[in-house]
Amino acid sequence: MATSCFPSPSIEGGLTDLRRRAFLAGGAGAVASISALSGCAHSSPPNSPPPSDQPLPPGDLDGAVAKLRAQYVAQFDADYVDNVVLPSFLNSIYDGERPVLPMIDVALTKENALPYDMWGLLSLSWKPAPQDGVTVFLQGLEKRGPDNRRKRIYMSAVTPDLYAGMYQAKVVGFFDQLFSPANAAKPLMRIYLDTFWDLYWDLHLGVKGKDVPDQVRQIGENFNTVLAYRDPTQKIVYDNYMAVRKNLDFLKTWIDNRLKDIQSGKTPEPEKTFGWYWIKNGEDSEFFNHKDVVFECFHNFVAFSQWGNTLYNIMTRLGKDTGDAQTKDWFTKTMAGNFDGPDGSAFTPLERFVMELFRTISPNAGSISAMTETRPPAFERFGFIVSPHTSTSHDPVQWSNPDDFDPSRYQHAPTSQDIDEARIRQMGLAKCPFDLTSFDVKDGRKAAMHNSGFGTVFAVADDRPLPVCDYAGFAPFGFGYRRCPGEQLTIMAFEDLIRKVAKERLEFVKVAGTDAQKVPLGPSTPEMVPIGPTTVISDDIGFTRPS
Ligand code: HEM
Questions:
Q1: How far apart are the first and last CA of the chain?
Q2: Model-wide pTM > 0.70
Q3: Is the per-residue pLDDT at 22 higher than 60?
Q4: Which of 157, 402, 420, 471: disulfide with 394, CB 3.0–4.6 Å?
């Protein structure tokens, strides 16, 4: 499971243990700035590493840090140890409360809300470098321009009115290939991971197949492997982290050139790419300039990596031997009816079914915010709080049957269109926590990006509101002004998956592990594959088609 789009260090066993070893043992004061860490470590001779399961001795911070450094420098590049391994011990991540309303106040900021050891994946200086482009995902509301402008521009590329005409054929083509007869009865997630980049780059830049260089495919895989294994003290994380850094400049230049192709008309059907809308609606302004478009194009590795985890979990829940009875009953019931027909609710029956899959799977465990200390700390350190998704979605104050799989719960749930001034007053509040404003897109559509009283951004296209369920009990895509802009695209893509499963009567089954040829002397063992942030699974599910 993951925390916000980036993985949750709170669930990384190894890292937590190491952090405790390094600093709790030394007392609350046993933390030093990163530069101090490197400095003191340089001055100490490399001693033999401390036993990996023992706390470091209290009282000797310099010595403890030096020992830690010596241990890891023996295995990894010194820059990596100083900028990734040691800072990872300086993250404090706390579990937060379940929100009762679907919003997060601005005190819990997104500004650089990234465990510090991960910056080296995004920036060659190992730290935030806004002059080279920023992502809305790591920006505080106060820096996003008027009324969350950057978010509105970002979301203009993925609003539901675009799906059928611009993106659906790409998504459906990908699923057709993934579930082709040639892939039947094989472990599916490895195939998914190997082919996914064609969809990713086609959606972002209109490029696929041989036009995506190997280095670009490789860096995506490296990035996702770091997110999946996450513990920076593991060799697999080190190797993949350094591989990302090696290819980062190549990737950015490649993206930059492909964006130029979109602008010059070289790319066929440029309006079928996210890049097109970001360029048009960003207008190269301070709220979303060209470098920001480049940055978003690869930062989305994080966002999209969650599709793999979602797919795997859906297959598991609908699986012949592995499935969940309530989920399977609802699948049968929903797909036997008029699943795409409007029935008076804001969401169609199929949409409600997929929303319930997301609520119950909760591929992203919580929204991570950076915190400001009440007084400046004596040394640099990083504190974060996690607003949980899974427990909020299952909170009995939100639903009378929180643990049932029941898509009908969304039939009357409030939407972002409903949460207006009148509704907020009805709740007993004097005004909307977030002013109601709108931003007209500049890409030729008659569409505007509105927001609810809780700050949730949603589109109104051709005068038709396209809202989301704005209720804390539906938490898989986060809350309020920073809620996931890719939610509706994601839900619509997985609706297409469900349509396909029903229409072609695909069944999900346990399969023997990956290519038996690879283990000629032993039983076939399922390959372990990194399918999403902090999620490595054994690749043991496939599909069958009716004969
Ligand atoms: C299974 C799929 C996905 C899940 C579960 C998911 C979940 C989330 C969550 C929980 C947040 C809120 C994080 C926070 O407040 O700390 C978020 C934010 C975000 N997501 Fe997603 N996401 C998914 C897919 C996507 C996709 C496909 C895109 C892009 C097309 C995307 C783009 C973003 C962006 C840009 C933000 C930052 C929004 C802001 O801070 O205003 N996500 N996502």
A1: 36
A2: yes
A3: no
A4: 402
At 140 the pLDDT is 96
Structural domain containing residue 264:
2-544
Q: Which atom in ligand 1 lies closest to the alpha carbon of residue 307? A: 1
Atom 41 (ligand 1): residue with closest C-alpha?
482
Query: Is 258 or 380 the better-scoring residue by pLDDT?
Result: 258
Pocket lining: 110 vs ligand 1, CB cutoff 6 Å: yes
Q: Whose CA is nearest to atom 26 of ligand 1?
A: 486
Q: How confident is the model over 469-480, as a mean pLDDT? A: 98
Q: Is 489 in the pocket of ligand 1 (CB under 6 A)?
A: yes
Provide the strand spans (E) within 78-181: 91-95
The token duo for 470 is: 């704005």
Q: List the structure tokens of 135.
A: 């992502």
| C-beta 96 within 6 A of ligand 1 | no
Which atom from ligand 1 is nearest to the alpha carbon of 358? 5
Helical ranges in 339-456 per DSSP H: 349-361, 390-393, 421-426
* 66 CB-near residues (< 8 Å, 6+ apart): 40, 41, 43, 44, 47
The pLDDT tens digits of the residues spanning 184-243 come to: 999 999 999 999 999 999 999 999 999 999 999 999 999 999 999 999 999 999 999 999
Q: How many domains does the chain have?
A: 1
Residue 503: which CATH number? 1.10.630.10
Alpha carbon of residue 479 to chain centroid: 14
